[in-house]
Amino acid sequence: MLNFDDKKFEEKTLTRDEIFQGKIFHVVRDTVSLPGGTESFRELVFHNGGTAIAPVHNNKMILVGQYRKALEKFIFEIPAGKLEIGEEKDPKAAALRELEEETGYRAENLTEITAFYGTPGFSSEKTYVYFSSDLTKVEHPRPADDGEFLEQIEVTLSEAKRMIELEQIADAKTIMAIWYWEMQHFKKEVEDNA
Predict the structure, then answer these.
(1) How confident is the model at residue 1 (pLDDT cuts 50, 70, 90)?
(2) Which domain covers residue 42, as residue numbers?
(3) What mean pLDDT comes out for the span 143-163?
(4) Are 127 and 54 in contact (CB under 8 A)?
(5) What are phi and psi of 158, to 5 degrees?
(6) Residues 16, 43: contact at Cβ < 8 Å?
(7) Same domain, 98 and 186
(8) Which phi-psi region, left, alpha or beta, contains residue 58 (left: φ > 0; alpha: ψ -120 to 50)?
(9) Phi/psi of residue 72, each to 5°?
(10) pLDDT-based confidence at 86, cuts 50/70/90?
């Protein structure tokens, strides 16, 4: 699979119509030439990317809940945020910033869990996800973003898994972080029993 010739599937952009330029993303409609010689349209969202961190303190994961207008519901997530211009080169630093702003904690050691494209069919947004269980409470943390209203909770692994079942946790980055945390638990059990 590594030697696969993906160039034969490339879609060449013939024209681009600018639809919307916002503070968070940019929307275009491209006319593309398909590999078979026909034309089609692609509606695309360009996004600078995001970063997130799964913080575990005293064997509990710290989550932040907020109302998500696109879903029209309140959900819990790991601390996260968009990458500001220039932060694409250091998403780890942005994750640390978000952790402090949203929870009041600082992390010393971060492990990158993954980086993923959530909806590559139409969006360029890439999210970097980190894990840390080496946390320190900050006496005077950075303030949260304007217009951000958060509820902070701490949950055990079994509670987090139950919240996924109830769709109180419903976003990909948080679910991946919980799976990673569960794998770390399993790995530790195997090592302890070896």
Answers:
(1) low
(2) 6-47
(3) 90
(4) no
(5) -65, -35
(6) no
(7) yes
(8) left
(9) 55, 40
(10) confident
Q: What is the pLDDT of residues 123-135, one digit of tens each?
A: 999 999 999 999 9
With respect to residue 1, please indicate whether it lies within any of the assigned structural domains: no
pLDDT, position 193: 86
Tokens encoding 60: 């509990």
Q: Count Cα neighbours of 155 within 13 Å in the Cβ-side half-sphere.
A: 24
Domain identity same for 23 and 87: no
Can you give the three-state secondary structure of the chain, one letter per residue? CCCCCHHHHCCEEEEEEEEEECCCEEEEEEEEECCCCCEEEEEEEEECCEEEEEEEECCEEEEEEEEECCCCEEEEECCEEECCCCHHHCHHHHHHHHHHHHHCEEECCCEEEEEEECCCCCECCEEEEEEECCEEECCCCCCCCCCCCCEEEEECHHHHHHHHHCCCCCCHHHHHHHHHHHHHHHHHHHHHCC
